[in-house]
Design goal:
The chain is an alpha/beta fold. It is 42% helix and 16% strand. The chain is built from 13 helices and ten strands. Strand 6 and strand 7 form a beta hairpin. Helix 1 packs parallel to helix 4, helix 4 runs antiparallel to helix 5 and helix 5 runs antiparallel to helix 7. The longest helix has 28 residues. It is globular. The structure holds guanosine-5'-triphosphate and magnesium ion.
């Protein structure tokens, strides 16, 4: 395996398109996210290239002139990695590698690489490896002939690097094997979940980096890994939490992202089963992020994809301590942005709009925790008594001394 030393970041160029379906504002936002992904994977961004096209070029994604401009810039500045903000087709990837003679990555590849770096347990590693092979299979023709694979780094970890001569058959066999291995683990996990009995199960869901693990730690007084990078959590943690005297199980799991590679959704089936089988979802949102409403939509889309969109839900808007507001002058005629809306206005809007109980908190300073806990208690209690109708009198809500 190629080890990358800590703090040894590789220099990269980002490339994105302004198209009919993707405005300039959106592109900037997506490129910011791509840069964060690149940083998480271990790259620093030297320059961004953008181009206005009706649609991506079928051969080279960007136009020929733009491609040459990027190639020359990379050459002059000794940059070996170019990252495209979309999934490239196998032929686009092949053409770009041939023409540009640098390592070409796309969004999917980058996310897969982060997952590969972060996978801790053999279970997570198996799931990621399967997703990587599935990504690799249709792209095998590119094979890294002119690109010495010794270069290593992002996108070169995992299956691709072991043997250059790997052929489709070997990969197919490997995929079959991994699928069988996962089936066995899935079964074990299923049994484990069944053994947890009938306790109400609550799952934290949300976009990556919104504060799910931080909230999990705060609620369960446990110590789940949280940090300011994307996909800090890949494995699922389940903790017993008690509010008042009502116990339930709380699950923290992988965060979602716009355009989550389908290979990953498929491979992480069992991880996502935790969400699918939960009785209640706590949808955590980072309200300090300018695109938080897009994030909500992406999460809802993925919930729909895994058939978990009809569950009871609580909306938790997190990071209110970090919310920034830019008041706009009344005679300023430029169009407003999310930043020109105050927290109070957002609260009013979302309280009115949301079909679900909604609360605004800070997992860091624990602001509004009492309110949030009461909300969770009420929902869990409702589910609990529907399951154990005779048990109702056993439970009562009281506030935790610590929080007051
Ligand atoms: N200012 C502020 N920062 C927060 C709050 N909650 C979490 N954070 C920070 O946000 C970052 C991400 O937090 P995590 O808990 O790792 O987020 P996550 O949703 O579990 O992220 P993934 O596992 O990567 O999907 C960390 O740097 C946290 O310290 C909050 O209420 N306020
Ligand atoms: Mg996490």
């Amino acid at each position: 395996m190629l080890e990358k030393k800590e703090h040894q970041y590789e220099k990269a160029i980002l490339v994105g398109l302004i198209t009919q379906n993707q405005s300039e504002d959106k592109l900037i936002e997506y490129m910011d996210e791509l840069e964060f992904l690149a940083f998480t994977a271990g790259a620093t961004v030297a320059k961004r290239f953008t181009q206005r096209l009706t649609q991506p070029d079928s051969k080279t994604f960007v136009g020929k002139g733009k491609m040459e401009e990027i190639r020359d810039y990379a050459k002059e500045n000794g940059i070996g990695t170019v990252i495209f903000d979309d999934e490239l087709s196998p032929s686009q990837l092949k053409n770009l590698e041939r023409e540009m003679e640098v390592k070409i990555l796309d969004r999917t590849n980058l996310i897969l690489d982060i997952f590969a770096q972060r996978a801790q347990t053999s279970y997570a590693r198996t799931q990621v490896e399967l997703a990587q092979y599935q990504y690799l299979l249709p792209r095998l023709t590119r094979m890294w002939t002119h690109l010495e694979r010794q270069k290593g780094g992002i996108g070169m970890r995992g299956p691709g690097e072991t043997e250059i001569e790997t052929d489709r058959r070997i990969i197919r066999d490997r995929i079959t094997l991994l699928k069988e291995k996962l089936k066995v683990i899935d079964k074990q996990m299923g049994t484990q979940r069944n053994n947890r009995g009938k306790m109400v199960r609550v799952a934290l869901v949300g976009y990556t980096n919104v504060g799910k693990s931080t909230l999990m730690n705060a609620l369960s007084k446990s110590d789940v890994f949280a940090e300011n990078k994307l996909f800090a959590t890949l494995d699922t943690t389940v903790r017993k939490v008690v509010i008042g005297n009502l116990p339930f199980l709380l699950t923290d799991t992988v965060g979602f992202i716009r355009k989550l590679p389908t290979q990953l959704v498929e491979s992480f089936k069992s991880t996502l089963d935790e969400v699918r089988e939960a009785d209640l979802l706590i949808h955590v949102v980072d309200i300090s992020h300018e695109s938080f409403e897009d994030h909500i939509n992406s999460v809802n889309e993925i919930l729909q994809e895994i058939d978990a969109h009809q569950k009871p839900m609580i909306m938790v808007f997190n990071k209110i301590d970090d919310f920034s507001y830019e008041k706009k002058d009344e005679d300023d005629l430029t169009p407003g942005s999310n930043r020109n809306i105050s927290l109070e206005e957002w609260m009013k809007t979302w309280m009115a709009k949301s079909k679900f109980p909604t609360v605004f908190i800070s997992a860091l300073t624990k602001e509004n925790f009492v309110e949030m806990k009461k909300m969770i208690y009420d929902e869990v209690h409702r589910i609990h008594i529907s399951r154990f109708p005779y048990n109702d009198l056993l439970f009562e809500y009281f506030e935790d001394e610590e929080e007051n």
